[in-house]
């Protein structure tokens, strides 16, 4: 059943190129994006003036990435909220509000409750899920199914990349509708998005640098993940993955926040995992790495292939292929998944069945 892999988590990590390909297959027809269900009229779509992405856990992190893309391409204000908060406050919802619910299982109690509440208040709801016919799919006005197939390991990996791919297409659709993206740009972006499947394969072909970095960090009691922009969003996911499967305490911070508190934690050998891929804020991340290094931190950098300079600042460098910054979440998340798994195994943990967790959270 594990197809020759030692655990489901690894099998599912290696299933990610296929997940991305299948999630994109058949979606772009004559320059127009096609979704599984779309009960919204072009007029309703054009009228959208606010987006809330609601989700829990890893799915929430996929939402954080999507916020950047939605605002960049469509200029529609977008907020991302954990469903358990959204449902108990009084968010600003009008008929031109789009609520995007992201849920692998399609049955998370808080996410479902948030959808129901939003619909009562008049919002349009778009669901992104892995499970056909799930409550999230049934109760939404539009659906994009991610084609992750069944995910067995409790820690979400391939479903996360599928969600990011689906949310990227939704952001492209909104960009096209609002005039921020031309059809030619949609085609180009879609092609580059599809190419990430190949880039993930490249990462998976040699994971030795990831294992080396993991071995250096395995005995730590705490770790910090830092990055900026898209890099910050995947730090949240990297820290969650590490916590949930290795029980090593980890936190993620937007790197610019270091000076406002977290840097006090650092001491000799404290692991700082920095997402330092090429982006408009690359130099700023490098400064944060230098500041951490000066306090004795052990630096693991996720960097863009060809960046030799980063070796001067980091103890361990994990390279990922060069992609447009907006797609770096897809590529750079993969080494963070493998890093967490590697540490968990070195610490003797069951990576598929972490303690205290269930695959689907159908009660509040
Ligand atoms: C973490 C993880 C959880 C889920 C969360 C939401 O690896 O899997 O944080 O992401 O419980 O689940 P879904 O996406 O099914 O709503």
Describe the structure.
This protein has helices spanning 8-14, 16-24, 42-47, 57-74, 83-86, 109-120, 135-138, 158-177, 183-205, 208-217, 230-246, 282-294, 328-346; strands at 28-29, 32-33, 37-38, 50-55, 78-82, 97-103, 124-129, 142-145, 222-227, 249-254, 271-276, 298-304, 316-320. It contains 13 helices and 13 strands. The strands form three sheets. Strands 3-8-7-6-4-5 form a six-stranded mixed beta sheet, sandwiched between helices. It has 364 residues and is an alpha/beta fold. Fructose -6-phosphate (F6R) is lined by residues 56-59, 103-105, 108, 111, 155-156, 244, 360-361. Fructose -6-phosphate (F6R) binds at residues 56-59, 103-105, 108, 111, 155-156, 244, 360-361.
Essential attributes:
alpha/beta, binds fructose -6-phosphate, 364 residues, globular, 5-stranded parallel beta sheet, 45% helix
